[in-house]
Amino acid sequence: MDVLSTQNSGTDKRIQILDATIKRYQYQQDALIEVLHKAQEFGYLENDILLYIAHSLKLPISQVYGVATFYHLFSLTPRGKHTCLVCTGTACYFQGTQTILANIEKETHIRAGETTADGKFSLQTARCLGTCGIAPVVVLDNTVLGSGSPELICERVTTLLTNSDCRPQAPVAAFLEQSLIN
Known about the structure:
The chain is an alpha+beta fold. 46% of the residues lie in helices and 11% in strands.
């Protein structure tokens, strides 16, 4: 659905919410991040929503898209029920997050930035989460896992996935446990 060409855009709840947010910020272009943040609450930033925001704030779509893709908290695709965010900053990299990331990618058959076909698990990376003191850092469903070896972090991820009401893929926990043994 193209929000800009839809005659019923006034009845679209998303547009009403965005209009209220844009009005609250008095149509200021420098409120782009706040408006995108509000739009992210709809699940992800669809193309029609990005176009609507660009049009409403009188910004080029390239600028809106650039901001939306720069920050890892914004997503242009639907995310899974469970989200795993792996920090790939320098401190975390040297403490082993590449090993953690590789293990999760191998078992879930997805790469960073993707979601499993069943929509249950998304794997993401971030350049830096600003938590270098507890490297390596992985954030699983808004739970920060850090201050340990890659093996310990994998064990924590395994525990969270095992105790979850909806595991991303049944073999993930077994795979991570197996990687601890080897």
